[in-house]
Specification:
This protein is of the alpha+beta class. About 40% of the residues lie in helices and about 15% in strands. The chain is built from six helices and five strands. The strands form two sheets. A three-stranded antiparallel β-sheet has the order 1-3-2. It has a two-stranded antiparallel ribbon with strand order 4-5. Strand 2 and strand 3 form a beta hairpin. The chain is globular and about 35 Å long. The protein starts with 10 loop residues before the first strand and ends in a 5-residue tail after the last helix.
């Protein structure tokens, strides 16, 4: 289990994410399986939780998964990182980026994030 205070402040359950995205629960589970979203177990009941920062607002007021997340998660997974390790890496300060990778992704610095992740595979 990860230290929840070190990674994200706003956590959502799978039903809350489904509601925010306007999709069914099974669609959220498919997004998790496809690495379009990332969830970790947290809390006393170890329920699946997804940081709200992995979602982005769209023009119609709805939400969608952060588009640049999937490629980054695939790269981190290929480097042998578990979901918990991916979450830690995404939300921890990164010297090369000057900010946590999730903030760089949200700012559109996709290539910089992927470059910062490359050494993890070796």
């Amino acid at each position: 289990m990860i230290d929840e205070t070190a990674h994200a402040s706003d956590w959502l359950s799978i039903p809350e994410v489904a509601e925010a995205l306007g999709v069914r629960l099974r669609d959220v589970r498919t997004m998790l399986a496809e690495r379009r979203l990332l969830a970790v177990r947290r809390g006393d009941n170890e329920a699946w939780a997804i940081p709200a920062g992995l979602l982005t607002r769209v023009d119609d007021g709805g939400a969608q998964p952060l588009a640049s997340l999937r490629g980054t998660l695939v790269q981190l997974g290929d480097a042998g990182m578990s979901d918990e390790e991916c979450m830690t890496w995404l939300y921890s300060p990164n010297d090369e980026l000057g900010e946590p990778p999730i903030e760089a992704l949200r700012a559109g610095r996709i290539h910089a994030v992927r470059r910062a992740a490359q050494p993890l595979a070796f």
